[in-house]
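User: Working on a comparison across species. This one is IS110 family transposase from Sulfobacillus harzensis. Can you predict its structure so I can line it up against the others?
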Amino acid sequence: MAQYNTIHRRQDAATTRVTPTTLIVAIDMAKYNPKALICDYQGTILEAPFSFGPHQQGVDTVIQRAETWRVHVGATQVLVGIEPTGHYHEPVVRQLTAQGWAVRLLSPTMTAEERQADHRRAKTDPIDLMAIARCVLNARGSEQPLLSGLPAALRAVSRSRRIMVRQQTRIKNLIRSVVDQTFLEYQGFQEPGQEATPTPLLDLWSRAGRIWIRELPLPQDYRQLERADLSLLNRREKLRLPESTLDRLWTAAGRAFPVPDEVAPVWRAHLERLYELYSTVTTLVARYEQDQEALLVQTEALAWLTTPGIGVITAADAYGEWSTLTRATSPKKLVKYGGLDPNIHGSGQRPDRYGAMSYQGSRWFRAALCQAGAMVVDPAHQNAYFLALADRFRERGLTRRQIDVVAAHKLVRIWWAMLAYHQVFAPPTWDGPPLAVDWRPKIHTVAHRRLAEATWSRFMTTRTH
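Assistant: Here's the predicted structure for IS110 family transposase from Sulfobacillus harzensis:
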């Protein structure tokens, strides 16, 4: 059995303890009408729930009332429990932290469990405030400081890029759906008598494919042309499509179902708008990736680029979420924060049984870690250490997704050691040739490469051997 120095497993050495000289302030954050409650270390309510404004004057009201009660009861410290609501709690937390108070963030799951412990079906702001205060008394929550500076900017940019990539995928699926309904063989042309899977005539996302569909989106658009006109369009737009492809396009247009004339203009406009939207989102994604590179080269995560298979985007996604745990003293806490730790079940003399991963951490961090795990076990990236690890677990019957999670587990521990000891990628259990690769070719902008050189010099100066 694991040994603990306190029954409060969520606490670490940096967590503020509740003592007889502690004053507790519970805050239920909201966008427009947050509320607060003040009680002592025994849970006796000193100030009934009251509303305050989500601005400087409102926070000053909370500070004034709490300081008045602190002097009255002789408390020496103020401990705040706050249930976050989106990002609206962040200015309040920063202001209270600047006041010198300890601020503990509580997840909605914690307060829900406290309400259930009282067997209450009701949910009101006063009930939530009392649940928040009890969470503080029971040593729940985290006192991790809010992100600021480069890590906060990197996390914001990485999350925005990930959202844009999802939108890009949705738009691509819409375009594929429209092409299926208008000119199916753009995505699959089958020769007479051919049994193999049809081959696409055009890459819908390449420059050539996008220009061709812009000019000739529907089958009936070909009927006003001659075969030579296709070659003329090909040369005029410098598309470099082979003549054999043009022959197949001409054949496909001749046998395709025509779109009814009364709706043809609508389909043409629909495709045009979707491609405009796709172009806009693709440009945004590229700009976000430039921002990610500009920020990453100024952080210690530059060392992660020495990992074969890991590029700027993957490292930036992971480090933006990784930096949230600024007090992580072991990789085990990072695995827990990512929700990659397994559920453990055991009782009596039976050995513990390890189940599926908990999924109880940050979904952003989990997605970034699983993506990194998938990258390093991809044979195309030639990471010999993780390819050997994948082979071992594949022989044990694990699926590809399970192997990605295992690789993410291992990668967290290696990356944590790389940052802790200022080292390049060199797993201690590897007995083959050095695995670390040069990070410089992975930085594409000259100005960013100069920043990276300065960061790398500072990082390696304090290297521990």
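For your comparison, note: The longest strand covers residues 22-28.

User: Helpful, thanks.
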